[in-house]
Amino acid sequence: MLRELSRRSLKFVLGTGASNIRPGVPPLIAELSPNMSSSANTDSGPLESAMRQKLTDRFHPEHLEVINESYMHNVPQESETHFKVVVVSQQFENEALIKRHRSINDTLKFEIENGVHALSIVAKTPQQWQAKPLVEKSPPCQGGFGK
């Protein structure tokens, strides 16, 4: 799956890092999130690591993927500007999809305000994930403004 997404894309399933390529520090980020843990995966960039740690702390997910999709866009190499997150958590039980998305956006507010340009969210309960454990591939970048 990593090869399909990109060599630089990192698929992180809770407890395992799946990349040996270290993305660089994005040019727009001058500081790390104040809640970033020192135990974050060292194979990912600072923003990606902070996002993973915050999502883990907040939702205690049974499955978590933080995928850097910046390579698919017209941004400098090694950027951390476009992400897809897949969060599977029992905390989403009986919650509307919009409320799940708002919770994730609130959790990642610092990152969104400090460099993350786009965030695609997949938020499922464990039962939903078990029924369909797939994440659709993101479409290619259209060059902005639908070009």
Overview of this protein structure:
The chain is an alpha+beta fold and 147 residues long. It contains five helices and five strands; from the N terminus they run αββαββααβα. Strand 1 and strand 2 form a beta hairpin. The longest helix has 14 residues, at 46-59. It starts with a helix and ends in a 16-residue tail after the last helix. Mean pLDDT is 76; it is low at 1-42.
Notable traits:
3-stranded mixed beta sheet, 5 helices, 147 residues, two-stranded antiparallel ribbon, disordered N terminus, alpha+beta
Number of strands: 5
Range of helix content: 25-40%
What average pLDDT do the residues reach?
A: 76
The global form is globular
Show unreliable segments: 1-42
Q: Give, in order, the helices and strands.
A: HEEHEEHHEH
Strand content: 15-25%
List the total number of helices. Answer: 5
Q: How large, in whole angstroms, is the Cα Rg?
A: 15 Å
Reported for the largest beta sheet, the result is: 3 strands, mixed
Taking strands numbered 1, 2, ... along the chain, how are they ordered across the largest sheet? Answer: 3-4-5
Structural class: alpha+beta
What is the secondary structure topology, with strand pairs?
Layout: H1 2-5, E1 12-13, E2 16-17, H2 46-59, E3 63-68, E4 82-88, H3 97-107, H4 109-113, E5 118-124, H5 126-131
Parallel strand pairs: 4-5
Antiparallel strand pairs: 1-2, 3-4
